[in-house]
Amino acid sequence: MNNQNQVVLEGQTAETPVLSHENHGVRFYRFTLQVPRLSGQSDLLPILLPESLLDQVRPGVPLTVQGQLRSFNNRSGIGSRLILSVYARTIREGTGVPRNRITLSGTLCKPPVFRRTPLGRGICDIMLAVSRTYGRADYLPIIAWGQLAIQTSTLQVGDPLELEGRIQSRIYHKVTENGTEERTAYEVSMMHRLES
After folding, report:
1. Over the stretch 35-90, which tens digit does the pLDDT of each residue have?
2. What is the sign, positive or negative, of the torsion defined by CA atoms of 143, 35, 4, 141?
3. Which residues are bridge partners to 19 per DSSP?
4. Distance separating alpha carbons of residues 27 and 10, to the nearest angstrom
5. CA distances from 176 to 75, 76, 77, 152, 186 (A)
6. Residue 158 CA to its chain's centroid (Å)
7. Which of 50, 51, 89, 91 could join 27 in a cystine, given CB atoms 3.0 to 4.6 angstroms apart?
8. What is the rounded average pLDDT for all residues in the chain?
9. What is the Cα gyration radius of the chain?
10. C-alpha to C-alpha distance for 61 and 95, rounded to whole angstroms
11. CA-based angle 183:188:192, to the nearest 5?
C-alpha cells in the first residue's frame, strides 16, 4: 500500500491571509476556508500556502484548494499540541459548488478507541500515521461512525488503513486555570474504507 494524502476543498475565504512563518527563505501564509456542509453548517478549515500562491486568494471568490492534510507538534505550551492544516499545492477559482474530500492511506499508530453515544451509535477514534516523501510523517486523527466504527475498532497498531472522508472542524470548551476557553478541533470524518 502506498501512503497517500490528497485533499480537495472548495469554499469561500473567511479571512485575509496572514503571515504564518518563514522556512528556507519561503514565506508561508495562513487563512481559513469556509466549506458548507449538507446540513447547512460550515467547516472552518485552516489553509497554509506558500507566498507564490497568495495572489490566487481573493475574498468573496469561491476557491478550489488541492493539497495535503499536515500535522505538526506545537511546543509553545499554548493550545492543542497537534496542529492540523491543509497545505495548499494549488489554488484556483472555484465553481461555487462546495467540496470537501480527503483520501488517506497510512498505518495505525495508536490503538483504536471505541465508544457509544448516549443514543447507542458506535464511534471509533483512530490516529493514522501517513508518511511524507522525505522521511517525516503526519499524524492525523480520524473518527469513524456506525458500521465503520465497529470494523475499525478491531484494527491493531501497525495495521494499514486506506480511507476516504472529509475534514471537519468542531468547537469545544476547554477548562483551564484561566477559566473556560473555546477551541476548535479538526479531524477526518471517515466515510468509506478503501480496499488496497
Report:
1. 999 888 999 999 999 999 999 998 888 999 999 999 987 665 555 578 899 999 99
2. negative
3. 29
4. 24
5. 18, 16, 12, 33, 20
6. 21
7. 51
8. 91
9. 17
10. 9
11. 155
Three-state SS string over the chain comes to CCCEEEEEEEEEECCCCEEEEEECCEEEEEEEEEEECCCCCEEEEEEEEEHHHHHHCCCCCCEEEEEEEEEEECCCCCCCCEEEEEEEEEEEECCCCCEEEEEEEEEECCCCEEEECCCCCEEEEEEEEEECCCCCEEEEEEEEEHHHHHHHCCCCCCCEEEEEEEEEEEEEEEEECCEEEEEEEEEEEEEEECCC
pTM of the model: 0.90
Q: What is the predicted pLDDT for the residue at 75?
A: 61
Q: Would you mind telling me the total number of residues written for the chain in this entry?
A: 196
- The grid cell for 163 is 480511507
